[in-house]
Specification:
7-stranded mixed sheet, 25 strands, Jelly Rolls, 6-stranded antiparallel sheet, 2 domains, 1 helix
Length: 374
């Protein structure tokens, strides 16, 4: 991976010192993409938490280090529900992130930290928000909230498209910790290598193989479910090519479901056995979203020769193209073999607890596999 460090982590607040040694355990689904490191926890950094004293420290146990010799340990024992300011990392000198449109965070969740190892029927989430400067005045800042990401035991590689127009400097990164409340966190989590990727992940990249661009009208017949797919030809909702996949979610409610739209056989035969990730672009018009306040998540599952590979339902930014990523281990890529189809996940909720249906169509484009160059 092409990397450069944006900041020599600043000595203030929590002091983290450096040692040699390395243990690269975290996944890197896009190793050919150019990145800049915001925080790697190898040097000093100003970090704090709103969860209470003594909950932030530096870890040197190699099994919880994604890259280098250190990571940040955040003790979330006993934490329930939504907790803003769970981790706050400040940059006293604003860091220029212009030209970088994707945020990446590596997170390790020990199984014992997830309700003592009994983590069925619950969720474990991080949601970042950034404090950004104005283009004309570093003393004027605003907050930019990104979508929530679900996680599971082990290493999680989280990516977040930044809001369109984000082309300034970052002064602070804040993480929200969340779970569904009835099964709490029971130990620490570990965070490493917070970075920004140059450019955007949207659209087919040089290290990617297109599986389908949803240009063929015949693909419509392969989809069934509560929101059968259609091939859209309105350029407003096409990222590239001549078509995109539209799903009309109007009236869809009931929280989390996979009974949205499914195509087990798209007539495809694309080899992904050497892929490191599957990418899919999403555009969700604001007018199509559930109207009540609450979470809104979308995701997908890839159908291969020998089974399925599930992604998580994830929060997203409305009215812009963004990329949903499913990282693949070598064994998972071989299991998929040749991609045959896909189906979709949706989730929504309302603070009132009332039914909160979707109001219109969403669009997908560019289903593709990341196949890094040697």
């Amino acid at each position: 991976m092409k990397q450069s460090t944006l900041v020599s982590l600043l000595a203030a607040g929590l002091a983290l010192t450096s040692l040699s040694a390395a243990f690269a355990a975290a996944p890197d689904p896009t190793p050919n993409r150019e990145t800049k490191i915001l925080v790697d926890f190898e040097s000093d950094v100003k970090a704090s938490t709103g969860l209470g004293d003594g909950r932030v420290s530096i870890n040197t146990d190699a099994q919880y280090v994604g890259e280098g010799s250190k990571s940040l340990k955040l003790d979330v024992s006993g934490v329930n529900w939504w907790n803003d300011n769970a981790l706050v990392i400040e940059f006293p000198q604003p860091i220029d992130i212009s030209g970088h449109q994707v945020l990446g965070v590596d997170v390790f969740l020990p199984l014992d930290s997830l309700n003592g190892g009994d983590n069925s029927g619950t969720w474990w989430q991080f949601t970042p928000h950034l404090t950004l400067t104005s283009r004309d005045d570093d003393s004027v800042t605003s907050e930019s909230w990104l979508g929530m990401r679900n996680m599971t035991a082990g290493w999680n590689h989280l990516i977040f498209n930044l809001a369109e127009g984000t082309d300034t400097k970052i002064t602070k990164l804040t993480l929200v910790v969340n779970d569904n409340g009835d099964k709490s966190w029971t130990g620490p989590v570990y965070i490493d290598k917070i970075q920004v990727y140059k450019g955007n992940f949207v659209g087919v990249q040089p290290d990617e193989k297109l599986i389908t661009g949803f240009d063929d009208p015949k693909l419509k017949a392969a989809f069934s479910g509560t929101a059968p797919g259609d091939i859209n030809t309105d350029n407003k909702y096409i990222q590239s090519g001549t078509g995109s996949l539209s799903l009309d979610l109007s009236g869809g409610g009931g929280g989390w479901t996979t009974d949205t739209s499914r195509a087990d056989d798209l007539g495809l035969d694309v080899d992904v056995s050497n892929a490191t990730a599957i990418h899919l672009d999403l555009f969700a018009p604001a007018a199509s979203l559930p109207s009540l306040a609450g979470w809104k998540e979308l995701g997908y599952v890839v159908v291969g020769e020998n089974g399925d590979k599930w992604g998580f339902s994830s929060g997203f930014l409305p009215d812009q193209w963004q990329t949903l990523e499913i990282p693949l281990t070598a064994d998972e890529a071989k299991m998929l073999g040749h991609v045959k189809g896909l189906f979709f996940i949706r989730n929504q909720g309302a603070n009132s607890g009332d039914d909160n249906p979707w109001l219109g169509k969403i669009y997908f484009d560019n289903l593709r596999a990341v196949v890094p160059n040697p």
